[in-house]
Amino acid sequence: MSQTVIIPTPLRKFTGDTELVEVEGATIGEVFTQLEARYPGIQARLCEENGELRRFINVYVDGEDIRFLDRLQTPVGAQAEISIVPAIAGG
To answer: Is CB count within 10 Å lower at the N or C end of the chain?
Structure first.
């Protein structure tokens, strides 16, 4: 079964302006690898060079923040909804 990834507007330039992408992976890290294979360059916007999630990128699996779970090792079930939400700074 595949998972649905909701791509935020700033990253849609990688997906040809597609908002919802179907991928398959057992963890968030695997999902990101699948996204990178299909849309080269997107993973660099999500992860640091050392592979860790970028500080201002929030990822949710079925509404749960992966920072409070197992981060990139967070398991994703069949038909999970994964939301990528870039933090917005300003003042």
So the answer is: C
Would the CA dihedral through 36, 41, 47, 49 be positive or negative? Answer: positive
Relative to beta strand 20-23, strand 3-6 is antiparallel
Over residues 21-49, the pLDDT tens digits come to 999 999 999 999 999 999 999 999 999 99
Is the per-residue pLDDT at 89 higher than 90?
no
How many degrees, rounded to 5, is the angle at CA 77 between CA 52 and CA 13? Answer: 55
Place of tokens 């398959």: 24
Element (H, E) at 72: none
Between CA 47 and CA 50 the distance in angstroms is: 8
Max CA distance (Å), the chain: 42
Enter the tokens of residue 78.
């069949």
